[in-house]
Amino acid sequence: MSSASGARDFGVYIHVPFCAVRCGYCDFNTYAPGEVEGATREGYVTAALAEMALARETMRGDGRPARTVFFGGGTPTMLDSAALVALLEGVRGTWGLSADAEVTTEANPDSVTPESLHALARAGFTRVSLGMQSAVPHVLATLERTHRPANVARAVAAAREAGLKVSLDLIYGTPGESLSDWRASLEAVLELEPDHVSAYALVIEPGTRMGAQLRRGEVAPTDPDVQADMYELADTMLSAAGYDWYEVSNWAREPADRCRHNLAYWRSQDWWGIGPGAHSYLGPRVQGDGIAAGASRWWNVKHPRAYAARLAAGESPAAETEPLADEDLRLEQVMLRLRLSEGIPAALVEGRAEAIARLIADGVLDGGAAVRGTLRLTRRGRLLADLAVRALAF
User: Where do the Radical SAM core domain residues begin and end (predicted)?
Assistant: First the structure.
């Protein structure tokens, strides 16, 4: 293994493309029952394990164990706990797991039981990320979420009893959601005292069912000013309760409660994505045969049936590969790392002094941190992170 790759952590993302229903706002690569003929959950597990075997050959000689594993989707817990454990065992057999590995699964509050969570914890899972989204029934109805708010508290209690860390995921800015609705959801979160909270502004994508409702005038467009007020309220309430922001949309009680897997994305670490539509990234490295390889990203075919068919034929499921030049990597570091509370070294955007000064004057960047050589977003800057990236990177 080269020092180039050895300096970076390695993680595994496993995309489980199944959901009980497709929510109206969702544009992820997910499929509800009946949407995909010839693609079963059993067949998915077989195909995912076959991709791991392919990865073992591709990364032969690398030697890094997985420090993080993240099951996302979709709803990974649409698979039973035995299937999830089999997939984790596949990761362990392919790469190994570091002694302090963080292993997370996303879940809906009504897709887990005390028994299933205990089974996951025994197998080595360490975190569960529950899709709470809101504590207000009419907001959940607009989002087409199927769980009742009471299910969240039960799922949190069961996860804690199993010894798992708990993250709660929220969405704000749903059509018809008021600031008082949002406050009620935040209060419900704080009552549950999770280890970690994620809060994302709703973006209504054109190809979704909600996007069609928006075009027909059946739902109102999201108001950016209201969403900004909601973000500021979340940051105020979470900070007062002892949660520190470490990424624009993420807060944690302690540094150890931060999602290490997502931090690896933002810090341009390496990961292999398993499953239909999953993306992977490997930075510059020396392969097992001693030949140097540059940074590259690739992504799998999206359809579960096509994914399984390729692997059954012994073929790679990759749809396309993108080599990354040094300038591509620099731009990505600015785009991703600027979102973190740690910020970026000013040297990473050498020659942008005028843009930096303007962003400080506009209250987007912390002037004191900039004097010390670090570009760090203010709270106002977090609301304007995309603007800051464009000013600094392009």
Answer: 4-244
Whether residues 353 and 214 share a domain: the answer is: no
Domain boundary among 233, 249, 265: 265
pLDDT band at 293 (very low <50, low <70, confident <90, very high): low
What digits encode the pLDDT tens for the residues 172-194? 999 999 999 999 999 999 999 99
In a domain, 271, yes or no: no
Q: Say which CATH number the domain at 123 has.
A: 3.20.20.70
Question: Which segments of the chain are extended strands (E)?
Answer: 10-16, 66-73, 97-107, 127-133, 165-172, 196-201, 244-247, 250-252, 270-274, 279-282, 285-286, 292-293, 296-300, 318-323, 344-345, 374-375
Q: How many domains does the chain fold into?
A: 2
In a domain, 83, yes or no: yes
> Is 207 a domain residue?
yes
308 in a structural domain: no
33, 74 contact by CB (below 8 A): no
SS3 (DSSP) at 171: strand
Q: Which domain holds residue 345?
A: 328-393
pLDDT tens sequence across 194-224: 999 999 999 998 989 999 999 999 999 889 9
